[in-house]
């Protein structure tokens, strides 16, 4: 894959919940190794974009294409086949705001569940991968712990390991630190930053603008289900062209 090739290319995604139109034609391209930060006010559709890319929501229209062998191209104008949906879900992995670990499973079991049950990989291989990844994020000793025995920051690091264990083409982070106590935010952002430096391709929904500025290649500002502004992180966050972006960035900077 050439370095400039898009891992993901989404065009004109539209989605309504009943009479509430939430996405009004979203385009998104993410190139290999690129980090895209998605920002915008609550209710602007950010989570719905991520969930649509991961096949957790099915858009009413638009297209999604993933590079790779084989490539995947889906047009939501027609009903999605089970095979395409399974393939779509396999392309990316989500890290959720509230970690979403299975409470009745150990850390190890949480991590190997997808690789073993869904991807049908050999258990021994999945366990070895999980142990290596836990070591990486400093949680090797928590292998047999249950989620309730961990801090929020530790749970989210497990959430990140669980996503990595799926070996996705694209990592999706949905406000990964917004449920954490302030003193635990740094350890999670640190892990995400390392992954970005390692070359993982990712889309991150975040309100941490300083973090976005330091890791993101591109920032996309959404409001009301549309992309209002997009561009290099430094430009969008320091010198926004649109009034709506300016107001949002100013307000967030004042809050922190
Ligand atoms: P954001 O992540 O930017 O806060 P969301 O994508 O979560 O925005 O939500 C956008 C809008 O879609 C909101 O008005 C929300 O209430 C609505 N919405 C999201 N998911 C659902 C759902 N499953 N059913 C009905 N409405 C939803
Ligand atoms: Mg959200």
Enumerate the spans where pLDDT stays under 50 for 5 or more consecutive residues: none
What fraction, in percent, of the residue positions are helical? 25-40%
Round the mean pLDDT to the nearest integer and report it. 95
Cα-to-Cα separation, first versus last residue: 40 Å
In the CATH hierarchy, the architecture is 3-Layer(aba) Sandwich
Q: Element order, helices and strands?
A: EEEHEEHEHHHEHEHEEHH
The CATH superfamily appears as P-loop containing nucleotide triphosphate hydrolases
The largest sheet, given as strand count, sense and whether it forms a barrel, is: 6 strands, mixed
Number of strands: 10
Radius of gyration: 18 Å
CATH topology: Rossmann fold
Morphology call: globular
The largest beta-sheet arranges its strands as 6-7-8-3-9-10
Structural class: alpha/beta
Q: How many separate domains make up the residues?
A: 1
Estimate the strand proportion. Answer: 25-35%
Count up the helices. Answer: 9
Distinct small molecules: adenosine-5'-diphosphate, magnesium ion
Task: Write a concise keyword list for the protein shown above.
256 residues, alpha/beta, binds adenosine-5'-diphosphate, Rossmann fold, 6-stranded mixed β-sheet, binds magnesium ion, single chain, 10 strands, 4-stranded antiparallel β-sheet
